[in-house]
Write a structure and sequence with these properties.
Elements: H1 3-12, H2 16-29, E1 33-35, E2 47-49, H3 51-70, E3 75-78, E4 83-85, H4 86-92, H5 94-97, E5 99-104, E6 111-113, H6 114-122, H7 131-140, E7 156-159, E8 163-165, E9 175-178, H8 183-197, E10 203-212, E11 227-237, H9 250-254, E12 256-260, H10 262-267, E13 272-275, H11 276-281, H12 288-303, E14 311-315, E15 327-335, E16 338-349, H13 351-360, E17 366-368, E18 373-375, E19 378-385, H14 386-397, E20 398-401, E21 408-411, E22 422-426, H15 433-446, E23 451-453, H16 459-468, E24 473-477, H17 479-484, E25 486-491, E26 497-501, H18 505-512
Parallel strand pairs: 3-10, 12-14, 22-23, 22-24
Antiparallel strand pairs: 1-2, 4-9, 5-6, 5-7, 8-9, 10-11, 11-19, 12-13, 14-15, 15-16, 16-19, 17-18, 20-21, 24-25, 25-26
Helix pairs in contact: 4-13
The protein binds glycyl-adenosine-5'-phosphate (GAP).
């Protein structure tokens, strides 16, 4: 059996709650992600990334950008402002509809998110349930305040946007909002971007950037926070050509994925593994372009090393669909707290462009040169949170080697995204080993590798430190290196060591990448 599968199996024995806590502890201990502004104590839901975390985040963003923007000819990138005027959020529907269900205790005033409270108290998954249905469950099970057991007031809605004002006057004209999704800046700039990039339908506009949501109850570390980063593509398609998708190759059509359909959820039946071809033939997935983006997103997540057995696609129920969506599928991951959304892929129809056309008075239609007609494109939107993905990857990659007090932590991160790619160690600091190791370290840095030099502590301690940071390769310069110019190359997951020539190190590492 391949070493990697052994590690995966060992991980299965980890109890779920323990796993999340261990990963959070590791993040804090190694300064990967910490509560923001810890020295003063800050509000929940805000986090700072230390050196390893910042690099991992950047690697994920770069990998996504290289795959979906620079690696393709049909997608271009933008970078919009974070603060935008009230009018934009009124038109997009966020002012009226971007709400979560809130329950408040009559006695102590504690405010909780109604769906979370029901899930926690009844130990059921309530994804997809309407507010009315949640209210029924609260009544039926006589749910009380989790803090003081006081009576709960009826569920009401709470808008998640952060509001502020621009300049010294605070009135409706100066009212602005921190964006709760990056998408709207793409829609607002759609006409300009289409013009300057000279793209014809179908084409996409991508963006990576911060989003802000005043979550009632941020929880599960960076899974649900108040400030986070999103990677989003708005993919614009001729409204009559949603099934005309040349990118949906035979290979992709044959890809089998676990689908948890609306019907499964209504009839309480198990999700099934089926091919995209069957899902399209049976009209489970509405359009071929939607199927393509489901497959492309799933494929990319697996390419980062995520365990495909822990991924499934869940269709939003009719009650659950966002105000702009006609069909949404979440890529769900099996978290320690259950199957939950890792990313969403929605058919936003022509809702956003039509809304912004109407509200701004600007024509946002597309001139189809082939037919000389004006159309408003439909949009398929793959949307993913960087922080949520990063935390998911950490939990997926976490494992322990050895037993009991001797157990050592290892992050089995893919070399594609690991914050440090290779560590260089001299066996000892003396006898010219440190100088030789430093020369190699500088050479690897210059060759573009994310390399790190470490000469502190025993060699075993240094391997352990690198394993814990997810560094896939380590090179040790020892006394033989002084004689024959060879070094030891060690692989993190298998612990396998091989002897290679000093001059071959860069080439060997390139091959591993
Ligand atoms: N533009 C569509 C949109 O924003 P969403 O499902 O609300 O859709 C997309 O968010 C993704 O953003 C989610 O799948 C998740 O990965 C991430 N996300 C959403 N809210 C988040 C939060 N509070 N903290 C961290 N990530 C979040």
């Amino acid at each position: 059996m391949h070493e990697f599968s052994v590690i995966q199996m060992a991980k299965k024995q980890e109890t779920d709650a323990e796993l999340a806590n261990k990963v959070i502890n590791l993040c804090q201990r190694r300064g990967i992600i910490v509560q923001s502004c810890e020295i003063y104590g800050s509000h929940a839901g805000f986090f700072d990334y230390g050196p390893l975390g910042a690099q991992l985040k950047r690697n994920l963003e770069n990998n996504w950008w290289n795959t979906f923007v620079t690696g393709r000819e049909d997608v271009v990138g933008v970078d919009g402002a974070i603060v935008s005027p009230r009018a934009l959020w009124k038109a997009s529907g966020h002012l009226d509809s971007f709400n979560d269900p809130l329950v408040e205790c009559k006695k102590c005033g504690l405010r909780s998110r109604a769906d979370h409270l029901v899930e926690d108290e009844l130990k059921i998954n309530v994804d997809g349930l309407s507010t009315a249905h949640l209210q029924e469950l609260v009544h039926e099970h006589k749910l009380k305040c989790p803090k003081c057991k006081g009576e709960l007031l009826p569920i009401r809605t709470f808008n998640l946007m952060f509001k502020t004002h621009v300049g010294a006057t605070a009135d409706e004209a100066t009212e602005v909002y921190l964006r709760p999704e990056t998408a709207q800046l793409i829609f607002a700039n759609y006409k300009l971007v289409q013009f300057v990039s000279r793209k014809q339908l179908p084409f996409g506009i991508a963006q990576i950037g911060k989003a802000f949501r005043n979550e009632i109850a941020p929880r599960n570390f960076v899974f649900r926070c108040r400030e986070f980063s999103q990677m989003e593509i708005e993919y614009f398609i001729h409204p009559a050509k949603l099934d005309d998708c040349p990118l949906l190759s035979a290979d992709l059509l044959d890809t089998k994925m676990v689908l948890f359909t609306q019907e499964n959820q209504e009839k309480k039946t198990e999700p099934k593994k089926i091919s995209l071809r069957d899902a399209l033939d049976k009209k489970i997935i509405g359009t071929r372009w939607h199927a393509y983006w489901l497959a492309a997103s799933h494929e990319w997540l697996v390419s980062l090393g995520l365990n495909a057995l822990k991924l499934r696609l869940r269709q939003h129920t009719k009650d659950e669909l966002s105000h702009y969506s006609s069909e949404t599928w979440d890529v769900e991951y099996e978290y320690p707290w259950g199957w939950k959304e890792l990313m969403g892929i929605a058919n936003r129809t022509d809702f956003d462009l039509k809304q912004h056309s109407k509200a701004s008075g600007k024509d946002l239609s597309y001139h189809d040169q082939a037919t000389n007609e004006k159309v408003v494109p439909f949009v398929i939107e793959p949307s993913l949170g960087v922080d949520r993905l990063l935390f998911t990857l950490l939990m997926d990659a976490y494992c322990e080697k050895g037993e009991g007090g001797e157990a050592k932590t290892l992050l089995s991160l893919s070399p594609k995204v690991a914050p440090v790619f290779v560590s260089v160690f001299p066996l000892m600091k003396k006898d010219g080993l440190a100088e030789k190791a430093r020369d190699l370290f500088q050479e690897l840095k210059q060759a573009g590798f994310a390399a790190e030099y470490d000469e502190g502590g025993s060699i075993g301690r240094r391997y352990a430190r690198a394993d814990e940071a997810g560094t896939p390769f380590a090179i040790t310069v020892d006394y033989d290196s002084l004689k024959d110019d060879t070094v030891t190359l060690r692989e993190r997951d298998s612990g396998k060591q091989e002897r290679i020539g000093l001059k071959d190190v860069a080439c060997a590492l390139h091959k591993k990448l």
